[in-house]
Structures
1.
Amino acid sequence: MNKLKTFSFGYSIFIGLIIAAFIKLFIIEFLVVDGISMEPTIKNHQTIIINKLSYGLQNPFGSKLLIQWAKPQKNDIIVYLYKNNLVVKRCIGIENTRLDYLEESKYYLLVDYKEKIPLTNEQYQNLKQCFNIPKDYVFAIGDNYDDSFDSRNYGFIPTSNVLGKVICKWMIFFLEKN
């Protein structure tokens, strides 16, 4: 009888681990943000929860979706891989969104005739020939314009590379730096 209880307990643990691995690989991810590019929305060392099923089924061993059933929408906070690093940014433009440029005392990107986003000279030179976001791409930037390395620097992100959407955030106080 004791062997049966031990086997049953071990089997339950094994099944629990399989379910937890499945959830981690395909459904939910917890991520501690490193950097200030999304401040004030998401602070440095804040923990976020990512819904990996928001846009499709992720390849757990790659940087693209296996199956895509939705695309990011404007203002979604998305997660994607850039140079083997997970990046968290706000989607400010989806396919066919109009991009215009202003040259005042500084350079600015005008997204869909509404949002005015500052550009450095280098960012302006990289983007000035692009007037619409291409099909199956998004434009994503950090909320902290001055301290964000984003689509203004490296261009559009394929929607198939967007691995999830931030659905929740909270602060873990013991990780905060004073």
2.
Amino acid sequence: MATGDQRREKDLALLDKLKSKSKTERTKAGLEALYAIRCNMFHGLKAFRVNQLEVLRPAIVLLQSTITVLQQALEEDDS
């Protein structure tokens, strides 16, 4: 968000999706969260704080796992 204002309602809605019983809903929410983190990292209007590592570390693990799954799917598709 260009203003740097927090959007608590949107964050809570995403958290609800991440807790969904639906695997598809959780997967979409995970990707949405990664995208939001990516946007914040590249376009955020704040200085880095150590507590952000709590968000970045699991996001990096999730991104690495996502890339691995996508690579495997692409390799299987080429076979």
3.
Amino acid sequence: MALLEKLAARGVPLYCLFEHILRFFCLPEANAIRLGAFRGIVISGDLQIMKPEREIFEFLLQRYGLVAAQTVFIDDNAPNVAAARDVGIHGVWFKNARQCELELEELLASP
């Protein structure tokens, strides 16, 4: 949650791709998540398209006018990260907050 807050404070555009909104709010850390930090939220279960299906990533890009090569997808599930990469999105496989932050810093520093 601290990393999410850091990114939001830096003005990094954040979007949420989640499978089911009910599962989202059942997470212990859900109360700490500031939904207002996200510029957009896609609930894949509502669309009947689930990660790691290519179409969900394409939908996210199209809905919010994002460029795949300028977008980063973070997930704790390696197949989901691989699927995002197949669409041209940078992928970060979340293992822990520090590792994720270091990888994001490297991507944000790239031209």
4.
Amino acid sequence: MNTCTPRNKTAEYRIEPLDSTRHRRDGFTCESQALTDYLQRQARREMEARASACFVLVPLDDTGRIAGFYTLSAAEIATACLPEAMRRRMPRYHALPATLLGRLARDESFRGQRIGDRLMQDALARAFAGSAEVGSIAMITDAKDEHAAAFYREFGFAQLTGNRLFLPMTEIVHLLGRRGAK
């Protein structure tokens, strides 16, 4: 569980796994109707099936309210798609394990509070920590548009194929250190 205190704000937040008995999914609305629908209708079922893990950022003064969320799941990267310099350092398998950042969204009412940054930093830290238990060479994500791709690039993600972006675990550890994460 990660507690966040925003700059120049009095609110504090905590990131925790989605709990459908406590978190009010029906009150969440973001810019993307598809992401709103996902959290409201699909996230719980995917968690129960262990197809993905959903984490929510909640204000400590109303822990049932969801300010933002992200999902992580297992994935793989075709070794041939990796940049040559990275591919040379990897085992010679057809595909290598990765962590998929499937979805990330912030409730519209929390605009301007850097919720996306908090969610991303937690997702990176959680993926890096998990890679010590279950191998993962990188975090990958599929940017839904150029605005999303620009957000991911701010964290060092680079294009892998099409709209798929990636960030090697070796870069995540350095990024987390620069941003003061544990």
